[in-house]
Amino acid sequence: MRIPSGARTLGALLATFALAVAGTAAAQTALTGTLARIKAAGTINVAFAGDSLPFSSLDNNNQPQGYSIDLCNRVIGEIGREVGEPSLRVNWLIGSTEDRIAMVAAGRADIDCANTSATQTRMRRVDFSSLVFIDSSGALVKTARKFVRFGDLAGRRIAVLQGTTNEAALNAMLKERLINAVVVPVRTGPEGIALLESGGVDAFVGDKVKLVGLAAQATDPAALGLMQDDLEIEPYAFAIPRNDSAYRLAVNRALSQVYRSGDIDFVFSRWLGRLGQPTALLASMYVLYAIPE
Fold this sequence. Notes:
Strand content: 15-25%
Number of strands: 12
CATH class of the largest domain: Alpha Beta
Helix content: 40-55%
Shape: elongated
Number of domains: 3
Distance between the termini: 49 Å
């Protein structure tokens, strides 16, 4: 059948219009920022801690492991789908809390997957994902010394990881409560444990779950225990580059899916199950961040 020339012209115009609309839509969904950089490189750079069991540490084969690493792998999978690269290479970058924040702020790392507390001070340099855990900080001591509260540490030496929220909170608390103690900054958790066991310090301040993990690796775990006092609440989140809403959405979408599906139960049980069930505060956090699609 012969198609009238007018119809052919209209069909051509409609086809051209459809292509233009499709091109505009593609342009609108084009990757930008961190997602574009990850796609171009085919690699995601992930900062993590090597000594923060059960959140982020090295296994016997020097591979990252832990609660935060399991969540991070789910995030990496979602980012891979977002950029159309399901088999993204992962470049793992080990560092202290201070190092990891600096990596993300400078663009050397695309995400920090460890036990980093979200704070307003850090938000001047990086953004944060939805919360991934809520802990409290306290002090690990030798059980034989009978230290119960921070006031008992007057005149004593207290180790703390330098550059952390624990260090700032410890200094502020000692000043506010007029407790005269010597603060000993350390670079790593094992360094703090070694000082505590040798008598070089009388207490080691940090996030309580991390302290429990470190104590389990001590020469004599039974000789160590937590004091009753809490120092402050520590809300953990993944540090990510600032001002990149598309990337933050991809990260949070993965975390929400883990919380909604109930997969978080398996992750928690694997790494923290020996400590019992999630606290009421942590369970509420999982519900609040199970954001629907």
